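Troubleshooting log. The previous run stalled partway through. Resubmitting the same two chains, unchanged.
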Amino acid sequence: MQNHILSIILLTPLVGAIVLLFVPKENKNAIRWIANLFALGGFVISLPLVPWFWAKVDQPGFKFVEGAANNWIPSIGAGYLIGIDGISFLLIMLTTLLGWISILSSWEAIQDRVKEYYVWFLILQTGMLGVFMALDFFLFYVFWEVMLVPMYLLIGIWGGPRKLYAAIKFFLYTLVGSVLLLLGILFLYFHHHAMGNPYTFAFVDVTGAGTAAMGGVWASAASIATKWGLKYVILLFIAFFVGFAIKVPMFPFHTWLPDAHVEAPTAGSVILAGVLLKMGTYGLIRFSLPFFPAAAMHPTVRFWMITLSIIGILYGALVSLMQKDMKKLVAYSSVSHLGFCTLGLFALNPLGLSGSVLQQLNHGVSTGALFLIVGILYERRHTREISEYGGIASVMPVYATITLIMFMSSLGLPPLNGFMGEFTILGGAFMENRVWVFWAVWGVVLGAAYLLWLYQRVFFGPVNNPKNQNLPDLTTREIATFVPLVILAVAMGVYPKPIFRILQQPVETIVKIVRPSEYGTFNAHAGETAPPAQPAATPEGTR
Amino acid sequence: MFFLEHIWVVPLLPLAGAAVMFFFGRTWRTPAPAGAGHDHYGDAGPSPADTAYDTHAAHGPADDHEHAAAGHDAHAHGAPERLPKAFVNAICVGAVVLAFLWSVAAVWQYTNWAAAHAHAAYDTCAQPGGGCYTWLGTDTGRTVYPSAGGFAQFKIEAGLLLDPLSAIWLLFVTGVGMLIHIYSTGYMAHEGGYYRFFGYLNLFMFSMLTLILGNNYALMFVGWEGVGLCSYLLIGFYFLRPSASTAANKAFIVNRIGDAGFILGMFTIAWYFGTFKYTAVTELARSGHFASGDAVITFATLMLFVGAVGKSAQIPLYVWLPDAMEGPTPVSALIHAATMVTAGVYMVARSNALFTLAPETMKTVAIVGALTAIFAASIGLVQNDIKRVLAYSTVSQLGYMFLALGVGAFAAGVFHVFTHAFFKALLFLGSGSVIHAMSGEQDMRNMGGLKNKIPVTFATMLVGTLAIAGIPGLAGFFSKDEILWQTWSSQNGAYRLLWYLAFATALMTSFYMFRLMYLTFSGRPRMTAEVESHVHESPKAMTLPLVILAFFAIFAGYLGLPHSLGGSNRFEKFLEPVFQGEATQVERTGEGQQLAAGERAQEKSDSTEYLLMFLSVGAAFAGWGLAKRAYQNSDTGYREPIEQASRPVYNTLYNKYYVDEAYDYVFTGRRKAGGVRLGAMGLGDALWKFDANVIDGGVNGAGWLTKLTGTISTWWDKWIIDGIGVNGPAFLTRVASYPARLFQWGQVQWYALVMVMGLIGFVAYYVWK
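Second attempt completed without errors. Output:
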């Protein structure tokens, strides 16, 4: 079972989609039940991975590896090779959970073309999981592109009034990035061959039963600079970066996001914000940093990465302050939050990187919940204009309470989860450069401003709009969608240690590759015993 | 040592209370009748379920609003689904009472323990037996960050620390908190959302206890933000009132600015010292490796102070506190007077080892404190809302505390926090009792003559007023006088200018407090006849806490009786282990600055101290006298003396120096300056336009360009490539073949004719040849 757990997790949604194909489309409730069963099953089946992974938490490299290099299309060197490390493990758990929640939340929201909807949604789920598991560039790229189609259809068919514009914008914009990404991958592929190796797309070497470590095109990426010059490393970095930055999205590549979110159905927004955006940051961590360390540490490149991140934080927050549409507000807040993620990422130290992944999970939980929250009102009133609401707290008290908790999580109130991410990221960034944090920390202030102002306008005050007077509070099913998110928001804030522990090994690997001179040996002696207490301060004489 | 070893129970008790309230306070709805499921909402029209919801809504927190506006008439249409009030009282008040008793026992055990352990701090992470877990980072030692002196381990424990400083806060927070909980059972008895109120209050207690008991800066920050949240929730308790939710937002967001400073300060410490723990930081700071005036430490302390300025409402971030009076009065007493707002003082006192190394910061603290003290006091002189006067008074008194900290008299500052907690809580609760009696009226212009109608409230409030005004013999006198004396004497008189400010503040304090007393309790009743007929003394649950607080407002001062008055200043001695390092610091650097308050006691000349004491007592009585003359017999339409003296001055004070307006123009952008919106909202607007037009315009432009290229290509393809290139030759061929086509038009008869003709031709040829 352990040997094939990843394939099982990966294929469960796909099997669900295939099963659905045989259900007559008139039988909507049967379709819903089956889809929910497979979505919940996909989540439940991923749960055993938690103890199994924990048992191997310190094992280096990739774990639960399945398949082999070049076993799929041997002639070009493509293989079905999957495996996970701590970062992908956490994102996979997030995906299976949010996938289930999204599908559960669609029960009533989707009334047209139900069968197609769930089929596409389940295919999307497999695509996303595949992206996080692939250890072969070809496989990765296939999943990366496959996942675009269902999302495109989800927005384009079940979306709002401007759905076609948004869907096409989403698809084309992402595709532009993908093309550059493909170019970069091909360069690596041919470079690997040029270095005297057989053609392969795999970027790891299988090192034993179920384990893999850096190898393949990844190993030969180190020789790009010597063979082609630093310029090529930077160009490759940019090619990968643009592909991922559009997905994140980083400023100024973000404008597809508000449109896609506003038009997408609720569940689509949840998955889009919760998981799809993480594919961008995941790509940056998995590829951009360890493949092109020379570029990542290049002062100019790093300066721009950090600058764009900080602009994203402040810009996203300021723009969301002035939004009139709730969903657009949350969408722009995503830009701000993802700015934190990339800031931590390019801080390039263990603290910043851990914080970045942590914040990705937090963003998935809290922004996913925020989109659900907006969806609840939208289903009842069919409008997302903030000015249409007011006084909802007196009409829907349970809903108001859950919203408040998730808002607090999103604006980083300790000890909820959002704080842990922001705190760790800001800490990591601060240790690199104080000025960065001086700017970024304003994002924390503005985060409180736009969310609380939104809360005030929607929930507080008297109910002035008669249409809002009879809104029903949450149903049991709706509460069920929120419960896991609320529990996670609290649990990840109060006891984030296991996550730090899971991230320790992969983050260490990346940092060692990116900054070998500083971090190459920093834990050479570290084992079970902690290093001596840190009187880090410099003695008087040296200052 | 049971209670000390299980000190973690203290914060968890109120947390449990809050959890019970939030989970069970609003008991689960009974399910809707069969057939009217929850599915029929939205456009489906009203169903039986909707009607049920409707009633629900009408009985929900809407009640809060009615009561906020109209007072306390009991409502018949109570909400039967809520927890019974007796149960709420038992859980929430019980939790805090238990927490208080536990704290007393723990502190008692701590003093015994400390005597045997060289007055060390009791850190649950350093002691066996739990109460500590790794919270952020890992235990492996492999999650590291680059600090100033090499890699430091990122490991933040959630552990508690009890030392004299946190013990003092622990005692008065749980003690005053307990009294205010009891008071609230009376004050909130007729309000809607009873369980919600107590749930928030308990959550606040938990956060505040986390703040003061945490053993590191990160955990303090958890409590710091937690109290901010509870403050937000409680200010906005009457959330149907827009002014309340606006005030709540203002409090949270302004505090967040301070928090940003706190974060920067905290990281600077972590970067410089490689740890977040108080004990480790203090030890390193006192190790002698750091020179006084160290730039990094100065920066760190300045940033921490920014945090304190936010939470403790100092210039320029004080603006939220007066607005916070929108919350129910017990909240104002607990959070916005006695406990939460002193968190900034606690933080500075907690970091005293660092602040001592940063004379520039100390100077800033002292100046900001003194300026805030006089600034807020001057506004308080003319306010008419009874709670607003007290709010500005709180800001002013907090300024006093920072002044004390700034001049290096940490113990004096903490002492003032301690006494202030009693008399200010007393005054707020007293004002709550007045408001209760006046059916919700808060404007002092409509009060007067209540002295005999609510005698207990009057007597206890008088005690509070005497205490805050600095009348000898009461708590406020001792603590305030200590601050004044330290301001005068510390650092060879470097801060004497600030003494004048503090002295003027003392005069103002006395004036506005007695103004409040006279306008409320003396003169002719100025309320409507209906209100007057309803005036009644508050129930026992409210007056009992007032009496107890009044007792402490008198006697708490004697804990810190100075040497010059024949006392031994036990308060200061108790705190000595926390602030002791200053003395060694001074000796070592030999700079003679930041003398420990304790060390200074021997140096001061008693005669000067007596003179200053005499002056400040004089100021207190002068303020009293002035207020008495102006307001003793005030009747409807009485004139303010300041207004009579100078109208512009009065207007400026009355409008709070127009600071709120200025902030709205410049920082928030809530007001437009000449049609232009500035501040965050202005920037947001501009960026939003930029985003929609420039960035997204660029994206759409790229799309348009692609389409244009496509159109041109289509045209090119259709007319040039296909037209000239492909169809052109075809056309030519067609033209060229035209003659040929003339012969070949597809008619079989014609072909047959030609064939026959040809045949005839051939035959003819052969025949004729």
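Takeaways: Residues 28-80, 583-599 of chain B have pLDDT under 50 and may be disordered. The CA atoms of residues 710 and 759 of chain B lie 60 Å apart.
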